Structures are given as C-alpha cells and as structure tokens.
Amino acid sequence: MDPRSIAAALPYAYEGLPDKAAGGRPLYRGKVRDVVEGPGRLLLVASDRISAYDRILSTIPFKGEVLTRVSAWWFARTSDIVPNHMIPPSELGGRDPLSETGRACLVRKADMVPVEVVVRGFLTGSAWRDYQAGRRVSGIDLPSGLARDSEFPEPLLTPSTKEASGHDRPVSGEELVRSGLVDADLWDQIARAARALYLRGRRIAREHGLILVDTKYEFGTLDGRLILADEIHTPDSSRYWRLPGGDSAPDGARRELDKESFRRWLADRGFTGDGPAPEIPDGIRIETAARYVEAYEAITGEVFEPAGLSTQALDELLAEWTLAV
C-alpha cells in the first residue's frame, strides 16, 4: 500500500468500540480487541491499537482489519485439525460481520484454558535470550553451541500461564499437568493440536515465500470438545520472516512482517515497559502499518482493500451487530 494512503488514514485509525455501542451488554477491553459478551456468543472487535511490553502505545491504521481477516483466512484452512470459535454466516442469516465491518466477528463463547501455547521453530526472541543466559527454555534443555535464529529439528512447545498481572509465566507441559491447571488428557490434545497447526501454518507460509518463525495459540473447550480461540497466525501473535533467497534463517538481512520492528524501535530508545513511553512518530506508525498490510497480502495472496468506513458508520454498524450477541 502506498505510504501516502496510509498517512491519509492516520487520523482515522480505530481506537475502539465506544461504550454506548455495546447496548448495555458487558464490554471488556483488551490490549487490542474489544469484546461484547452475550449468552453463548461474543462479538470481537479488533481495534487499531498497538501494544508492546504490556502497554498500549498508539494506533496503527488498518491493523485491526489485518488481524481479523488474517485469522479468518487461517481458521478456514485449519478447521480440519481443530474446530475454531468462528460462527459462519450460514448461522447468521447469511450476514457476516467481518465482510460488513472489516474488523469484527461473532464467535462462540468457550471455557478458555488459562494457558498460552507458543510454538517455536527457531531459536530467536525470548527463547534465544534464555538460552544465551544459560537457562532452560520452558523446561527444555537445548544442546550447547546453537546459533541465534537457528532452526530447531522439531518445533518446541513453550507454554505459559495467563496471569492477572499481564506478565505470563513460562512453564513446561509437565508443570501444567502436575499443578492441576490442565488435566493430562486435555494437555495432550492441546499439544497435538498446536504442533499440527504450526506445521500446517509453516508449510503454507513457505508456499507464500514466508517463514512462520513462531506463533501463539489459545484454546478453550465447548460442549466437551477442544476448540481454537482468539486469533491464529496473525502478525500480532506470530513472527514472520520474508527471505529473498530461501526458507531457512541465514545470517544477514531479512524483512520482518510483524511488530518486532516496532518493539525494537522502542527498546532502542530505552523503553521496555517501565517508565514513560516515547511518543510514536507518524513515520513509525506508517512503516508499521505497511508491514501489517504487506503481511496480509503475502499470507493470503490477496490485495488488501480497506473497508473504507467512517468511524461513525463503523460504530453504528457494530452497535447493530451487538444485538446479535
């Protein structure tokens, strides 16, 4: 997308669903998504907010649309592995909140498992930092002498507990079962589903010239069955690398199609979550938006077309959809 088009959209980045649009229904605001709760259903609205180091810092034009559309694209290509929480238009009278708003979806409300499952294909990010410091990676002993960004022979599952403080705690699968947080049979289902989802995602990403470096999944249960919830393989929940000459991770330049460059920009200015955050200049917002749009187009093979709704029109449409919750 032309940077000038992104710049023109900066004043209209969507900050989130106004309270009045929820129609009196319970409204929960996460870092990115606003959730309207009803009996058995949720309306998920992805704002354009961007967070890093557990802080909401700015807005990025089109980000919410990219996240919702990418998730829907991947949900459709992985439902044979594990069912997901999306409610299809066929159950909504043929209407579809995603196609109408670009950033909202109706989902089934599940009993969420209080665990995030990160699947890692490469020794990078926090896994590299733990390894470099001589620590185990979520209870996994890795051989010595591994290089940064090297590919694991098999993907690693590195779960963490979801803490009320917002700082998730890395644990091993064995610890989860031993603590009683997840029973052994459910954890076995989650582990098998997470590996299969990652391998499917990595294969499809490579067909599109990308590497799915690592990613995060959240699961729940509904009517006694495991389902995939939240999001899948988005630039928020995943690392993507675009490599010009192959599908491994050689030393040298690569283009990241996720929010890692945004996090690095903050860290380079001394911000990693404590103290006042730097003001985010428009140039960084534009560059980050361009990466998200590029990720959408690379993943899906489709040209990104914004919904083009005014904030007022979007709020009115979302208020209408809250009635379906």
Task: Please describe what this structure looks like.
By secondary structure, the chain is of the alpha+beta class. The protein has one domain (about 5-320): ATP-grasp fold, B domain (D-amino Acid Aminotransferase, Chain A, domain 1). About 30% of the residues lie in helices and about 25% in strands. It is built from 9 helices and 13 strands. The strands form 3 sheets. Strands 7, 8, 9, 10, 11, 12 and 13 form a 7-stranded antiparallel sheet that branches. A 4-stranded antiparallel sheet has the order 1-2-3-6. Strands 4-5 form a two-stranded antiparallel ribbon. A hairpin with a 3-residue loop joins strand 1 (about 25-30) and strand 2. Helix 2 (about 65-75) packs parallel to helix 8 (about 280-300). The longest helix has 24 residues, at about 185-205. The two termini are about 35 Å apart.
Brief overview:
The chain has 325 residues and is α+β, with helices and mostly antiparallel strands.
